[in-house]
Design goal:
Rossmann fold, four-stranded mixed β-sheet, single chain, binds NADP nicotinamide-adenine-dinucleotide phosphate, 2 domains, 286 residues, alpha/beta, six-stranded parallel β-sheet, 15% strand
Length: 286
């Protein structure tokens, strides 16, 4: 807040248990709505449950909140309470920084998304909306432990029928067994992008792959988290020299997510230079 010239603004945490009662989410959103000094909020973990419980308390939703049915940013625009989903933009910006322009056109790689939760859905939506064919993979494989999240993702894909999005071939696989994920990985062409969006290695122990899994030659491996044991990323790091891998963690994603919300809540434009300055400040506190 000091760096943004707003030292009078303070951050206050509100802890809710996972899948809290709808009434608790409504209390929190109503509190922000009613208190003039509450400027807004950044929502983690509860993005889907909060919107499901309190959608009528918002005066408006951003297009990504409608598309993903989740809210990660709550802000007041001219007195109106607006909910937005930041993951498609924040995840998209960090994915763009990792892959560079025309990645899929240049390499012919595909995308393997391990996990079909909120961040997987946001990243896939981002790719489906890419205007140039070279920025979209020809095939996206999504693996998830249980069926409901896969069904939700499938429905989102079905709703987004822009021309480019229709070109992408999708495969939805319900699986939670690591050796089966190794087999799916082995079937990917060189240059493919493998994302760990399961939370395994941080939220839960272990990795969605076994220790003997082999990443695609010259591929990109992206772990969405930046803290925890990160077993999946450690395996990729060990193979990076021999397999020609690019390995990235979720730090930049995290900083983009916060920057997006701060920008909405404080009505502050965060350009590349300001992002770099905030990112350096965040890195010093990492
Ligand atoms: N760096 C950042 O700023 C940033 C931003 C967003 C997310 N993240 C991280 O990314 C991770 C995913 O986030 P999210 O919001 O998408 O979480 P989420 O909604 O909880 O999704 C995780 C998904 O992974 C599935 N899963 C778990 N273990 C699996 C396994 N072994 N095989 C297949 N699927 C498995 C879960 O399946 P079920 O349906 O069975 O539960 C769930 O659908 C979290 O750890 C989060 O902290 C980081």
């Amino acid at each position: 807040m000091e760096a943004l010239g707003r030292p009078e603004v303070t951050l206050a945490g509100i802890d809710l248990e996972i899948h809290a009662a709808p009434e608790r989410y409504r209390q929190v959103v109503a509190g922000i709505r009613e208190q003039p000094l509450a400027l807004g909020a950044l929502v983690t973990t509860h993005k889907i449950d909060l919107l499901a419980a309190a959608s009528d308390l918002f005066d408006g939703l951003g297009p990504f909140a409608t598309a993903t049915q989740e809210v990660s940013s709550i802000a007041k625009d001219a007195g109106k309470l607006i909910g937005r989903a930041t993951d498609p933009v924040a995840g998209g910006l960090s994915m763009g920084a990792i892959l560079g322009e025309s990645y899929f056109g240049r390499t012919g790689g595909e995308l393997l998304m391990l996990g079909a939760g909120g961040s997987a859905l946001a990243l896939i939506l981002h790719l489906m909306r890419k205007a140039r064919a070279a920025d979209r993979p020809q095939r996206i494989l999504v693996v998830n432990r249980s069926a409901p999240r896969l069904a939700r993702l499938k429905a989102m894909v079905g709703r987004n029928t822009a021309d480019g999005a229709r070109d992408i071939e999708f495969e939805f696989i319900q699986n939670s067994v690591a050796p089966r994920n190794d087999e799916i990985l082995a079937g990917l062409p060189p240059g493919s992008v493998v994302v760990n969006a399961t939370g395994m290695g941080k939220d839960t122990p272990g990795s969605p792959l076994t220790d003997t899994a082999l990443f695609p030659l010259n591929g990109v491996v992206w772990e969405l988290n930046y803290r925890g044991e990160l077993d999946f990323m450690r395996l990729a790091e060990a193979q990076a020299p021999t397999r020609g891998l690019t390995v990235a963690d979720g730090w930049e994603y995290f900083v983009h997510g916060w920057s997006q919300v701060i920008s909405h809540v404080l009505h502050e434009k965060i350009d590349a230079a300001k992002f770099a300055r905030l990112s350096a400040l965040a890195a010093s506190a990492r």
